[in-house]
């Protein structure tokens, strides 16, 4: 009786169970992934009330923990799942994206991911009951853990009827968040950004598209189109499909740079605030961008449909998903190593003395720091 009453109030554990089962099955496949970094998970308590793990290496070390949320991107996946007629949930990509939000921030300190935890809050129990979506999401998390070298050790899946409500025409879309724990070993690999200085070269590493930033604007503009997210881009791909391309995992890049002892002065994920985020440091530096990689089709779509160039480059990553700041003598080697590791890298600019700003020469723009 109590369980039925609780279900009537909006929390039906029987409907949440398929999702939990899929996530537990995925978690069991991840436990050995951090072993290559000498981190071992205690599997006897997996998915109890918290993950238990230890570092068995002999190096002085530090831990870095990053907590992040996906934002609104999965609203697009929900729209496509319901209205595209393709029958694809896109939640394998969304699971990967969710993890990458924290993974790519964690590595900015020189940490390599080892432990992953998720937090999924939906507005109703029904959302969890869709086995296609549940299995796709679990698959995406598994792929993210394997790519990053981390283990899923714990998670929380909750139906919050009175708190989480999607904007129509999407009926239900959860809030997706996670935490990633990274290992810095030896601890002198810690990257603080303090070494950033005049003369440093800026290396841009290509993105795969919007990643998970600017989704709110993408939703607003997409819903204003006659065909909405089924709008065809010049390549023939739909707008929704292009927006849901998974975020790049930059862990392999970080591993390569650390193993080759590249002198990294600072690292910066190319996320919110776009190109203007380059002026992230409080010191008086000018970031002169003289070159830029090919801009992905998805961004050109917005530019060609009336979005100003200023809005484009300060909202979206505009084609660069990660920035490295290295001394001049390391620039060529850093680019070569990144490209050899399977990333697309190029020198895009330099750090100069002067007013804190970004001079984006490809479009003749001067950009103020984010929030100014």
From TrEMBL:
It catalyses: 2-formamido-N(1)-(5-O-phospho-beta-D-ribosyl)acetamidine + ATP = 5-amino-1-(5-phospho-beta-D-ribosyl)imidazole + ADP + phosphate + H(+). Its EC number is 6.3.3.1. Residues 198-359 form the PurM-like C-terminal domain. Residues 92-183 form the PurM-like N-terminal domain. GO terms for biological process: 'de novo' IMP biosynthetic process; adenine biosynthetic process. One of its GO terms (molecular function) is phosphoribosylamine-glycine ligase activity. InterPro entries: PurM-like_C_dom, PurM-like_C_sf, PurM-like_N, PurM-like_N_sf, PurM_cligase. One of its GO terms (cellular component) is cytosol. Signal peptide: none annotated. The keyword Nucleotide-binding applies. It comes from the Bacteria. Pathway: Purine metabolism; IMP biosynthesis via de novo pathway; 5-amino-1-(5-phospho-D-ribosyl)imidazole from N(2)-formyl-N(1)-(5-phospho-D-ribosyl)glycinamide: step 2/2. It holds the Pfam family AIRS. Keywords: ATP-binding, Ligase, Nucleotide-binding. The keyword Oxidoreductase does not apply. Belongs to the AIR synthase family. This is Phosphoribosylformylglycinamidine cyclo-ligase. The lineage of its organism: Bacteria, Pseudomonadati, Pseudomonadota, Alphaproteobacteria, Hyphomicrobiales.
């Amino acid at each position: 009786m109590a369980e039925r009453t609780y279900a009537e109030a909006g929390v039906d554990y029987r409907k949440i169970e398929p999702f939990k089962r899929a996530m537990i099955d995925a978690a069991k496949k991840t436990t050995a992934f951090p072993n290559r970094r000498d981190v071992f998970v205690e599997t006897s308590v997996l998915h109890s009330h918290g993950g238990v793990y230890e570092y068995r290496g002999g190096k002085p070390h530090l831990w870095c923990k990053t907590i992040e949320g996906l934002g609104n991107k999965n609203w697009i996946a929900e729209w496509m799942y319901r209205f595209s007629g393709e029958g694809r949930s896109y939640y394998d990509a969304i699971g990967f994206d969710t993890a990458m939000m924290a993974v790519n921030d964690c590595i900015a300190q020189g940490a390599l991911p080892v432990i992953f935890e998720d937090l999924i809050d939906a507005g109703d129990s029904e959302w969890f009951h869709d086995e296609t979506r549940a299995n796709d999401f679990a698959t995406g998390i598994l792929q993210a853990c394997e790519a990053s070298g981390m283990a899923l050790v714990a998670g929380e899946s909750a139906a919050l009827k009175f708190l989480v409500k999607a904007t129509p025409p999407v009926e239900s879309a959860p809030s997706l968040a996670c935490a990633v724990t990274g290992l810095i070993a030896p601890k002198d690999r810690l990257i603080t950004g303090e070494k950033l200085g005049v003369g440093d070269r800026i290396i841009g590493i290509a993105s795969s598209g919007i990643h998970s930033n600017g989704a709110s604007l993408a939703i607003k503009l997409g819903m204003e189109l006659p065909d909405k997210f089924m709008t065809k881009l010049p390549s023939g791909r739909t707008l929704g499909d292009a927006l849901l391309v998974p975020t790049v995992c930059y862990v392999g890049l970080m591993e390569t740079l650390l193993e080759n002892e590249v002198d990294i002065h600072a690292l910066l994920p190319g996320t919110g605030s776009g190109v203007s985020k380059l002026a992230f440091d409080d010191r008086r530096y000018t970031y002169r961008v003289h070159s830029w990689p090919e801009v992905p089709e998805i961004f050109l779509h917005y530019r060609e449909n009336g979005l100003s160039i200023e809005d484009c480059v300060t909202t979206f990553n505009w084609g660069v998903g990660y920035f490295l700041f290295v001394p001049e003598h390391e620039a060529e080697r850093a680019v070569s190593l990144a490209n050899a590791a399977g990333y697309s890298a190029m020198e895009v600019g330099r750090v100069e003395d002067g007013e804190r700003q970004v001079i984006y020469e490809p479009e003749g723009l001067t950009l103020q720091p984010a929030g100014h």
